[in-house]
Design a protein that fits this description.
Helix content is 3%, strand content 42%. By secondary structure, it is mostly beta strands. A hairpin with a 6-residue loop joins strand 32 and strand 33. The relative contact order is 0.09.
């Protein structure tokens, strides 16, 4: 050990001897004396960048808000400002900007470079009120009477409103948000015209003024799918208090018929509401088709045709499906088929347009059943009044709860989606093998999943389903919208599904949100529709004894 230490010490002394003979590298002094960056802050804010500046030749204009925070009444004291500058590493500022500076009058400084040369600057405060537009939107009705709201896209001094091509804006009203000390040149909420570019001036404290240009521009679509965060609740109506549906436990299904949303109420005439505002508009007289087992369920196809069906064998062995082309048209027989005692009619789903091509599904809901009936429509005609009976493997349902929807109206061998209690897994089935191809995780089995819908929207594929609480305890009453190509896994109720687009807040729209009796039949529905122009997707859902809700999504490329 001693020998090793001696040699080590010797090596170190030798290294020091040679090192002491080397000359240091010469660093030439920097001749740069320019300010690269400059900002201001306030005492107690550390080095936080509160106020930016603009450097023009030898003048530094520091843009200081009149009030900070901008929505407070705290006027900024220019005599107590902290200034921060970025200069070359071997340069210095004289006099120093360390500590508090007084900007009530200009400050003259010199930036002295490493070689001794210098450049003079004058620092000037530009104290103005904030003139930013926080948010702007226009509200109007289009040519079909549908209310629309378009949020502005603000780029510099230009405020763009993306309008779907072909849309007529009837009485567009401008609403906007500014800070509390600012005023706009157009009265908030007033009617405007965007036929030409419209100037809009914002003024604020300290004689601050900024003029914007309001413009209507043609909206363009995203290449695929829903615009992120575009979900907008159009309405949320309580079945009882808002829509006057006083019978409990019997409102169980929805249909989208043109501009109307139809609510089926077993044993009562159907109620239809405005599909965009939720306003109650009228009822459909069902005549001899009315009865708790006769008008048991309704639905619609992608073209807005209304369908109503009975429940078998409770209403006899013949399954009856009726069709109407509008809320004012008569219901005409569409399918009448003897189910020979099989339990059928709690759910019917349709993909496609029955005047062109469609697939109609109606699951059998006997205990332990694993089959469903499928009718095909080609070129506007039923292929057969007698359905094809399909048997599913790897999935089973109970307590009358199951719903199935195909994904392609032209091809019965395409994939389809299904969900049922108490499996409660949303499943995608292979249309050739009729076996499970993929599933989401099982939702809480104390509650009921019993409705599913599928839609193609802007080159994307979306599925929605529900989770219903039939008790006066616990928490469920949710609806989920899933991008089927965005990651079909996980549990959407726990937000672990990669493809989750939107989820209703748990319990908010169920009977617990209306203080009505518990949903004894465990019923609810979910249905989707696409606007004629293809820019909007509408998701509608309902929880019995709770709410009916309309949500809008868009695919506008901002």
């Amino acid at each position: 050990m001693k020998k090793i230490i001696k040699y080590t010490l010797a090596g170190l002394l030798l290294a020091l001897t040679f090192g002491s003979c080397q000359k240091p590298d010469y660093v030439e002094p920097n001749n740069k004396s320019e300010i690269a960056d400059f900002y201001a802050t306030l005492e107690g804010s550390g080095r936080e960048r509160l106020f930016n500046s603009r450097i023009s030749n030898d003048t530094v204009y520091v843009n200081i808000d009149y009030y900070y925070p901008i929505n407070s009444d705290n006027e900024v004291d220019l005599s107590k400002v902290l200034l921060k500058a970025s200069i070359p590493v071997d340069s210095r500022i004289e006099p120093s900007l360390e500590g508090i500076s007084d900007l009530t009058k200009p400050i003259n400084i010199s930036v002295i470079a490493g070689d001794g040369s210098s450049k003079q600057y004058v620092i000037v405060a530009n104290k103005k009120g904030n003139t930013d537009i926080v948010r702007a939107s226009i509200n109007f009705e289009d040519q079909t009477g549908v209310p629309q709201e378009v949020d502005a896209i603000i780029v510099g001094d230009v405020v763009n409103f993306s309008i779907v091509p072909g849309t007529q804006m009837l009485n567009p009203k401008l609403t906007y948000s500014l800070n509390k000390h600012a005023q706009g040149s157009i009265t908030n909420g007033s009617t405007i015209s965007l036929a030409n570019t419209l100037p809009f001036t914002v003024t604020s404290a300290g004689d601050a003024k900024r003029t914007y240009s309001l413009k209507a521009v043609d909206a363009v679509k995203l290449p695929k799918g829903i615009r992120a965060n575009s979900a907008k609740i159009m309405f949320a109506k309580k079945l009882n208090a808002d829509l006057g549906i006083t019978v409990n436990n019997m409102t169980n299904s929805l249909a989208v018929v043109g501009k109307h949303l139809v609510l089926n109420i077993r044993g009562e005439n159907s109620v239809y509401i405005n599909a965009f505002t939720g306003e109650r508009l009228g009822t459909i007289d069902l005549g001899d088709k009315k009865g708790s087992l006769k008008n048991f369920n309704n639905t619609s196809d992608d073209a807005g045709n209304l369908f109503l069906n009975n429940l078998v064998p409770n209403d006899g062995n013949v399954f009856k499906l009726y069709r109407a082309t509008s809320v004012n048209a008569p219901l005409q027989p569409y399918i009448q088929w003897d189910a020979a005692g099989k339990k059928l009619g709690r759910r019917v789903s349709i993909i496609g347009d029955v005047t062109k091509n469609a697939l109609i599904t109606a699951p059998f809901h006997g205990e332990g059943d694993k089959t469903f009936a499928r009718w095909q429509v080609k070129n506007g005609a039923l292929v057969s009044n007698t359905p094809t009976i399909v048997t599913i493997s790897d999935y089973q349902w109970s307590n009358n709860n199951i719903d199935i929807i195909y994904t392609n109206p032209l091809d019965p061998t395409n994939d389809y989606y299904g969900v049922g209690y108490s499996d409660n897994r949303l499943a995608r089935f292979n249309g050739v093998t009729n076996s499970v191809a993929a599933t989401l995780e099982r939702l809480e089995p104390n509650f009921i999943a019993n409705s599913v819908d599928f839609v193609n929207f802007n080159n994307g594929k979306y599925v929605a389903y529900n989770h219903v609480n039939s008790f006066d305890w616990g928490s469920a009453d949710q609806v989920f919208l899933i991008d089927t190509e965005g990651g079909f896994s996980g549990n959407p109720s726990l937000a672990t599904t990669p493809g989750l687009v939107w989820a209703a807040p748990k319990g908010t729209y169920g009977r617990s949100g209306t203080n009505q009796p518990s949903n004894a039949n465990g019923t609810g529905d979910v249905i989707m529709a696409v606007s004629d122009n293809g820019f909007y997707l509408y998701l509608y859902f309902m929880f019995t004894n709770g709410y009916v809700v309309g949500v809008q999504y868009d695919c506008v490329d901002l």
